[in-house]
Design brief:
Layout: H1 8-11, H2 20-26, H3 32-47, H4 53-59, H5 64-76, E1 80-84, E2 89-92, H6 111-120, H7 128-140, H8 145-159, H9 165-177, H10 183-207, H11 215-227, H12 232-241, H13 247-259, H14 265-289, H15 297-310, H16 314-326, H17 332-344, H18 350-374, H19 382-393, H20 398-408, H21 414-427, H22 433-438, H23 443-473, H24 476-498, H25 500-523, H26 553-562
Antiparallel strand pairs: 1-2
Helix pairs in contact: 3-5, 4-5, 6-8, 7-9, 8-9, 8-10, 10-11, 10-12, 12-14, 14-15, 14-16, 15-17, 16-17, 16-18, 18-20, 20-21, 21-23, 24-25
């Protein structure tokens, strides 16, 4: 029999999973209350309840500050990581961390070391667990005892007696990664660091960073000066001009300046002013387009900086944005297509952009006039602009285009009808408004009238058939039958290639559905034959031309009648 067993009821219930390493290595040495905090945190996460630090503290009958202190205690063992203090957020780590694994050490081996460390950290009593972490650092990283004492002393001088263990571990790890584990090498590094401290204090003051520089800052400072080639004045100017509040941001900004070959103070200030101006331009463009920029960086990188590199000025870009918004282009992507078109046409300077926009505004004004003549009240669309450009390329004046628009008024598709009229005039070589108005029965007028006549005949027949079909499809029963027939037609096409037997089955289904559909149409009093347009002329189907391309007899009769 096993030492422990569980009832069937327990076996069938939900559980909170805990790593075996936590139980075997950590649980025996951890503070009991810390174990409660750890286990309840796992339960909250795995059950999906979430909650806050205050909720956990209430459930465990403690204050939020006490709960936070236990999380910080667990962090010393690298079982958790405190991500944020306000609001408080913590991440549970695995139990594989080498330095976090509790080990047994002989206290007498480190007696002098523990006395020295406690004399350095005078503001509080060092716990057994914290000393255990120092012992791990000595053995895992290979530090000499005096070397680690010097590092701890440096950290306390920098941060004060309230320094957290995690900061000391971070600094010690940094030394170990550089192979600096002996007292001599630590002393040399700390001595070298003192030379950059004064310069870093000045840079921090310019940047508004309210803390003392540390070893990590010294690394960055050497990178900025030795690798990138910036002097102290340039670094301070960068921090002040770009309003930088962290060394991480300062580092990335200096790398940006390095890539753009900006090293002198004046160059840095000019570059900053330019970047700020581009940012403000992006804000103006977003406002003009009605776009909310939560993060400006992608818009700057993908659009505004590119446009500026093409040579567009801020004033021109703002004018373009305003034009785009009024014409339905309400995103950076749509504006980009428009800007690229201007660039391809060589319209880049403020003057050339303004001239181009004025021409476009005048063009849109004419198109609105043309649409009104057609009897349309909708907005101008790209198809209208393309059509106007094509008609003008045919050598038609605006007066001729308006005349065609007037003749197209009342048609179901006036702009398409216009194109037919203008095409007729073009084929007859008639580009003078007087010719069109003074000779209504001339050959070109006859051809235009013929095209109008047959367009109306076809449109009437096709519209009537379409209306009949739509009325049938509006019926839910017949509409569903047609939908099934369409789907089966697609399936049949594939089956005919791959499986003849399956194709035969689908064909039978189609026949049955078609019969059902015919019965339903009969119930609706709809003739299926009416789905097909009934043209007035069976010979030409209201095109005016027979199959061999010769004029149909009905066309000859119509021409004779209008003459």
């Amino acid at each position: 029999m096993p030492f422990i067993s569980v009832s069937d009821e327990i076996a069938n219930k939900s559980f909170t999973y805990v790593e075996n390493k936590f139980i075997s290595k950590y649980l025996p040495v951890l503070d009991p209350v810390a174990v409660k905090v750890y286990l309840y945190s796992l339960y909250l996460f795995q059950s999906g309840f979430g909650g806050s630090l205050e909720d956990l503290a209430f459930k465990l009958n403690m204050t939020a500050d006490e709960a936070q202190s236990y999380f910080e205690y667990l962090e010393e063992f690298e079982l958790v990581s405190v991500i944020s203090v306000s609001p408080f957020e913590v991440k549970i780590l695995d139990a594989e961390n080498i330095s976090g694994t509790p080990k047994k050490f002989k206290p007498e081996k480190y007696a002098d070391f523990t006395k020295a460390v406690q004399s350095i950290i005078k503001g509080r009593m060092i716990s057994t667990n914290e000393f255990r972490e120092y012992f791990v650092m000595l053995e895992e990283y290979g530090f000499e005892q005096n070397a680690l004492i010097m590092i701890i002393s440096y950290c306390v001088n920098l941060k004060g007696d309230n320094i957290r263990l995690q900061y000391i571990k971070k600094v010690a790890r940094s030394f170990a990664e550089d192979g600096i584990t002996s007292a001599k090498k630590v002393d040399e590094k700390l001595s070298a660091y003192t030379y950059s401290t004064t310069a870093l204090i000045g840079i921090f003051k310019a940047a508004g960073i309210n803390r003392q520089p540390d070893i990590e800052d010294d690394k960055l400072y050497k990178k900025w000066t030795a690798e990138l080639g910036f002097d102290d004045g340039a670094i301070a100017a960068c921090a002040k001009k770009f309003k930088i509040k962290s060394t991480e941001k300062l580092d990335s900004t200096l790398e940006e300046l390095y890539k753009n070959k900006k090293f002198d103070v004046k160059e840095i200030e000019a570059y900053c002013d330019g970047r700020i101006a581009v940012y403000n331009c992006a804000l103006d463009i977003a406002k003009a387009l009605g776009v909310y920029m939560q993060n400006a960086a992608p818009y700057l990188e993908n659009y505004v900086n590119v446009w500026c590199d093409w040579g567009f000025g801020f004033t021109a870009l703002k004018s373009i944005a305003e034009y785009c918004f009024k014409n339905g282009k309400k995103s950076f992507e749509e504006m980009n297509d428009f800007v690229k078109g201007l660039y391809d046409d060589g319209a880049v300077s403020d003057g050339s952009v303004n001239d181009c926009l004025e021409k476009l505004r005048a063009q849109d004004a004419f198109i609105r006039k043309m649409l009104n003549a057609c009897g349309l009240t909708r907005k101008v669309i790209e198809w209208d602009r393309a059509s106007l450009e094509k008609w003008r390329s045919w050598s038609f004046s605006d007066e001729m285009i308006l005349e065609a628009a007037t003749l197209s008024a009342g048609k179901s598709n006036p702009t398409s009808y216009m194109s037919g009229i203008l095409s007729s005039w073009k084929s007859e070589g008639k580009f003078n408004i007087d010719e069109v108005r003074q000779h209504p029965s001339s050959a070109h007028a006859t051809k235009a009238d013929v095209e109008k006549h047959y367009y109306d005949l076809r449109h009437y027949a096709e519209a009537k058939a379409e209306k009949t079909l739509n009325n049938a499809l509006a019926d839910s029963v017949y509409g569903d039958i047609r939908k099934q027939l369409n789907e089966l037609a697609i399936s049949l096409a594939f089956a005919e290639v791959r499986d003849a037997e399956k194709a035969e089955g689908i064909s039978q289904q189609i026949k049955k559905l078609e019969a059902d559909g015919d019965r339903r149409l009969k119930e609706l009093c709809i003739d299926k034959a009416d789905f097909t347009p009934k043209y007035s002329c069976k010979i030409c189907n209201d095109t005016g031309y027979a199959k061999d391309g010769s004029p149909c007899e009905c066309m000859k009769k119509f021409i004779a009648s209008i003459k």
